[in-house]
What does this fold into?
Amino acid sequence: MNIPKFVKSAFLLFTLTLLVFGGCKNQNSAIMNQPGIEQFDLQKYLGKWYEIARYDHRFERGLEGVTASYSLREDGKIRVLNAGYKNSLDGKYKEAVGKAKTTDTPGKLKVSFFWFFYSDYIILELDEDYQWALIGSSSDNYLWILSRTPQLNEQTKENILSKARARGYNTSKLIWVKQKSE
It folds into this structure.
């Protein structure tokens, strides 16, 4: 069978993309199948969040002053704007714009920063007033603590860390993100 060259090229590009974005996971990664929150109000969740802590991963490596802003798009999806400063709070400003969509599971979103490749974004714990959130994924390689303010008090931090540990996360791996005071 004679397959056209453009089909071979498209298949090769697709395969390489899968390897780079889907197949290069840490071999020690565990699949997390934990439930997220039971009730979720997207309107309350929209707006600006400060990244308080995260697991290390290549797409945020070296970033400080990181924020995530969520807003509705005209097509009903969610606009995701992640921004931060490279290597210091005065470093080069970087941002990534993506999109998210809701799912049938409360507090579970699908987020994409590249084409049509979506990843799980699971709100594991959420303050009743939407002031902080613990975010995970279907993999134990990802964990974030977000807040509406650049800093959290120690009691709130310990409460969130306790909830993360109860879900099986190794909180000693968290990187505490430097934030500008506002």
